[in-house]
Specification:
This protein has helices at 3-13, 26-31, 42-53, 84-87, 92-100, 134-139, 146-157, 188-205, 215-222, 230-233, 251-256, 261-277, and strands spanning 21-23, 36-38, 118-119, 125-129, 166-170, 209-213, 238-240, 243-248. With 281 residues, it is of the alpha/beta class. It folds into two domains: 3-59, no CATH class; 76-277, Uracil-DNA glycosylase-like domain (Uracil-DNA Glycosylase, subunit E, 3-Layer(aba) Sandwich), CATH 3.40.470. A six-stranded mixed β-sheet has the order 3-5-4-6-8-7, with helices on both faces. Bound molecules: uracil.
Length: 281
């Protein structure tokens, strides 16, 4: 399967195939199998994407994406703290070890295991989600459930692959659950307690572009008012510690709001354009 066809297949999986197809190029005719091929020129894709899918600035943000939850509290005797300064000096092995035994917040009480992050430690692309869900808590890897399948398809559409020049991390390393043991977004306190681990991961990876997947990732990394809608953050190249950061919808939100997949694709096109424009890429 050619790269063009592979990308077409991923876009189809994202529900975007027909929007991004171009009829009858020489390449497609020579290849035979597919009549409509996806445009591979990223600049052309971005221009078309953004022109076609400009957000209306009235975004539906899922209730599940709003971190308005009470943290699970730990008694002072149960908290072990590692100073921010110490974390900021750690190498990968030290960081993994300290995360695996972390008790900085109450999420440690109910976790099966911590979910550190996965991918190429020298990746140019960093994707940041919210926090592990049930599947991730069980398997110890981010985005392994249905949202992860969509994320993998988003990678494919971008010509990327999990583990190859990509790193996936979350704002919190332990699964947040509500009283009924259902997944919930992390509380602000839980996100803050975990943030120095992600900061150190970012410093070690030195990515070229960061993509914030959803509201929790965006407001935590950009230190914004939690009431800020994702729709207000899309379409702009933000900065996290001088690195370009693009905000898009969380894959789980996209699974519930299929019509917003085209907006997410426009965001990914902006991210690809930003990557292409960055001298260190
Ligand atoms: N949602 C996230 O934000 N992160 C995961 O790892 C899984 C689901």
């Amino acid at each position: 399967m050619s790269n063009q066809h592979r990308r077409a297949a991923f876009l189809h999986e994202m529900g975007l195939g027909p929007i991004w197809s171009q009829r009858g190029t020489a390449a497609s005719q020579a290849d035979g199998a597919v009549k409509d091929v996806v445009v591979t020129d990223i600049r052309a894709m971005q221009t078309t994407a953004i022109a076609d899918t400009r957000p209306a600035w009235v975004e539906q943000v899922s209730a599940a994406a709003v971190p308005m939850h009470a943290p699970v509290t730990l008694a002072a005797s149960e908290v072990t703290t590692t100073s921010f300064a110490d974390i900021a000096q750690m190498d990968w092995a030290q960081l993994k070890s300290v995360v695996a035994s972390c008790t900085q917040c109450g999420l440690c009480k109910s976790r099966t295991q911590t979910v550190f992050g996965v991918g190429d430690q020298k990746a140019k692309w960093l994707f940041v989600g919210e926090g592990p869900g049930r599947n991730e808590d069980f398997q110890g890897e981010p985005f392994v459930g249905p949202a992860g399948k969509l994320l993998d398809n988003m990678f494919g559409a971008m010509g990327l692959k999990r583990g190859e020049n990509t790193y996936i991390a979350n704002i919190v390393k332990c699964r947040p659950t509500d009283a009924s043991k259902r997944d919930r977004p992390p509380a602000a306190e839980e996100a803050a307690a975990c943030m120095s681990y992600l900061e150190r991961q970012i410093a070690l990876i030195k990515p070229t572009v960061i993509v914030a997947l959803g509201k929790t990732a965006a407001i935590s990394l950009l230190k914004l008012d939690p009431a800020t809608p994702v729709g207000k953050l899309r379409g702009t190249v933000h900065r996290y510690a001088d690195l370009p950061l693009i905000v898009t919808y969380h894959p789980a939100y996209l699974l519930r709001n299929l019509k917003d997949k085209s907006k997410a694709w426009a965001d990914l096109c902006l991210a690809m354009q930003t990557y292409a424009d960055t001298p260190s890429a």
